[in-house]
């Protein structure tokens, strides 16, 4: 009997050791940003580094909406270790804006870095898009225009006051830059050479269950328009052979995060690997829809150019 108990105890010990080893939190690289809550990741590959821009989620634990006053930047050479930099841009850097450092994206052109951001306008009701500029990817950035680039009264595809949010910017192989943005309606327009003025008309793209967070990227000879789908959000995408469309809907790329009603993706290729960067509410303690954290997982393509569904992991990039 004593031997049976000894054997059983040994078995329990071995089993529990295995469980501890499998869930060792020191092996969990997601979320990648652990020093503060961050949402709406937008990654820029520049030279041999990735720069990760995000909004700072400052909402206290008992506050159930966004509290966001500044954007932050981190950088990495290997997607595993992330270096934090001083805060490069705040809502107060835009004198015409009053609040809400919502989703944004930075792009480089001719050695200058342009940061397109969502903010609440101070005098024109609704959300708007501003642009800041810097000589360095880590800033400091300053307002490039002294006024909004896009205001709510410039778009008529949706009646809501928050349809002009979530800019994503892309420079095509011929040098032409495009700005895509939107909530409930997906808008896009060309940007002039100076990157601070819209060139021509604002167009509208019809996409199934488009909520927000458009992201444009190219991989091989396909253009991809991924976006937040339904609400709470999954990420879906469409593909095209041209940045001007037509876009063919390809389905779901990432499932619900579950612990956050938004998921906001950024997609890049870096040193031969594709990455899906997103936020969820998994951070302990007090993570959630308004206290989000940025995560990264690998992204894979099928032979026909479609993307394989993302597997969100705790381990992240090992
Ligand atoms: O962070 C505020 C808003 O939540 C963003 O602009 C949306 O994309 C959603 O993530």
From TrEMBL:
Annotated site residue numbers, Important for catalytic activity, responsible for pKa modulation of the active site Glu and correct orientation of both the proton donor and substrate: 166
One Pfam family from the record: Glyco_hydro_43
GO annotation, biological process: xylan catabolic process
InterPro entries in alphabetical order: Glyco_hydro_43 (IPR006710), Glyco_hydro_beta-prop_sf (IPR023296), Glycosyl_Hydrlase_43_Enz (IPR052176)
Coiled-coil regions, chain positions: none
Residues annotated as signal peptide: 1-21
Family under the similarity heading: Belongs to the glycosyl hydrolase 43 family.
Protein name per UniProt: Glycosyl hydrolase family 43
Species: Flavobacterium cutihirudinis
């Amino acid at each position: 009997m004593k031997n049976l108990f000894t054997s059983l105890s040994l078995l329990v010990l071995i089993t529990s050791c295995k469980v501890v080893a499998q869930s060792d939190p020191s092996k969990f690289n997601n979320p990648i940003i652990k020093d503060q809550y961050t949402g709406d990741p937008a990654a820029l590959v520049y030279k041999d580094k990735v720069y990760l821009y995000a909004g700072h989620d400052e909402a206290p634990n008992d506050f159930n909406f966004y509290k966001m006053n500044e954007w932050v930047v981190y950088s990495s050479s290997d997607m595993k270790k992330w270096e934090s930099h001083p805060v490069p841009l705040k809502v107060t850097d835009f004198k015409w804006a009053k609040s809400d450092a919502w989703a944004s994206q930075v792009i480089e052109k001719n050695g200058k870095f342009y940061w397109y951001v969502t903010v609440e306008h101070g005098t024109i009701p609704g959300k708007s898009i501003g642009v800041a500029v810097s000589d360095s990817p880590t800033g400091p950035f300053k307002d490039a225009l002294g006024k909004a680039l896009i205001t709510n009264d410039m778009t008529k595809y949706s009646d809501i006051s928050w349809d002009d949010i979530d800019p994503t910017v892309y420079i095509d192989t011929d040098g032409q830059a495009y700005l895509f943005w939107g909530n409930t309606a997906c808008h896009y327009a060309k940007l002039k050479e100076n990157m601070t003025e819209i060139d021509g008309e604002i167009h509208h793209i019809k996409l199934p269950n488009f909520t927000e967070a458009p992201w444009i990227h190219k991989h091989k000879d396909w253009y991809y328009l991924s976006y937040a789908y339904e609400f709470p959000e999954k990420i879906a995408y469409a593909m095209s052979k041209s940045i001007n469309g037509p876009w063919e809907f390809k389905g779901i790329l990432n499932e619900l995060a579950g612990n956050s009603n938004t998921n906001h993706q950024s997609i890049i290729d870096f040193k031969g690997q594709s990455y899906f960067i997103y936020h969820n509410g998994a951070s302990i303690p007090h993570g959630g829809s308004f206290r989000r954290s940025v995560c990264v997982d690998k992204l894979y393509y099928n032979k026909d150019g479609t993307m394989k569904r993302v597997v969100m992991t705790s381990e992240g990039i090992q």
